[in-house]
Every structure is written in structure tokens, then in C-alpha cells.
Design brief:
The structure is a single chain. The protein is α/β, with parallel strands linked by helices. The protein has four helices and seven strands, in the order βββαββαβαβα. The longest helix is centred in the N-terminal third of the chain and has 16 residues, at 23-38.
């Protein structure tokens, strides 16, 4: 499975189980995000601890998560960024747009 979804106190935690978040799997993540949105889950944490690479399709999925949460007055937090992914997010200046945390615990503390 490419990602695991658990829920903790009304917050969905999506753990990516892929080394590369790209066009081949970003659509599955987007579909899961849409499903969570339909279930009125508006706080989402995406843990990218296992992901070493992200392309524009992956960034698109992350931005979709951010928009869905904002549109429903929720919060989106991205955590566990590897160095390469962190650099990409900084270069794209998404570190100014997205809520970032070191790990799941820090992400949950931001939402609480």
C-alpha cells in the first residue's frame, strides 16, 4: 500500500509509504484527500518520513491537501521531510505557505 491513513482525535494522519511521491502515485493521494474531505475531516497531517523525492505532481497533491483544509477551516501540517524534499519545498517557497513540523508529534501539537 502506498500510504496508510489513521485517525487521531478527528485528525487524519496520512503516512506515505513510498520513496518517491510522483505522477505514478500522487493521484491516489489526491483521491484519498478528496474522500477525507467528503467525510468532513478537515485536519490532516501528512508524514513524509519515508519519502526521499517529490516532483510537481506530488507538490500538487500537497497543495490540494492544504487548500481542502483551509476551505473547511481546518489545518494541514506536513511533517517528516527528508533533506531533498525540504529543499524542493524551500525552493518553491512553499515553506511560507504550508505548515511544517519535524515529526508527527510536533504536527499534532500544531493542530491541537
Amino acid at each position: 500500500m502506498e500510504f496508510t491513513v489513521t485517525q487521531d482525535n478527528g485528525t487524519a494522519i496520512i503516512e506515505l509509504n513510498v520513496e518517491r511521491l510522483n505522477a505514478s502515485n500522487a493521484s491516489g493521494l489526491k483521491a484519498e484527500l478528496a474522500l477525507l474531505n467528503k467525510k468532513s475531516i478537515n485536519n490532516i497531517v501528512i508524514d513524509m518520513s519515508n519519502t526521499k523525492y517529490c516532483d510537481s505532481s506530488g507538490l500538487s497533491a500537497l497543495l490540494l491537501a492544504n487548500r481542502l483544509c483551509k476551505d473547511t477551516n481546518g489545518m494541514f501540517v506536513l511533517c517528516g521531510l527528508q533533506d531533498n524534499v525540504q529543499k524542493l519545498i524551500s525552493i518553491a517557497q512553499l515553506d511560507k505557505v504550508l505548515n511544517l513540523a519535524a515529526d508527527k508529534d510536533a504536527a499534532m501539537a500544531q493542530i491541537a
